[in-house]
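I am writing to request your help with a piece of structural work I have in hand. I set the record out below, with my sincere thanks for your time.
___
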Amino acid sequence: MQSISTVLLAIGVIGVLVWLMIPTAPTGNNKIGSNDPFIDPDDSYQIGLLVGMTGGSVPDAAVMRFALQRFQELYGRRATSTDIGIVLGLINSIE
């Protein structure tokens, strides 16, 4: 009886390990721009919010606006709230 339970336990462990190793397809929740709000380079409120979050000053707002416009040129689409990291990277490359 004990050998049967050991075999069943081993099969269960192997089954769980195989299940964990099978790659899964993305669920689609990580699509770029799926339901995220767009960041408009002409909206002073959004620019001020982003500059304030990064600890910037008024001259940095112009750099932020330019980075958002540059993002649109590079990627051919408007930036969303999930693209803030890319925009901040563009700012660091500009300065």
User: Anything to note?
Assistant: Residues 2-21 form the longest helix (20 residues). Helices lie at 2-21, 44-53, 58-75, 84-94.
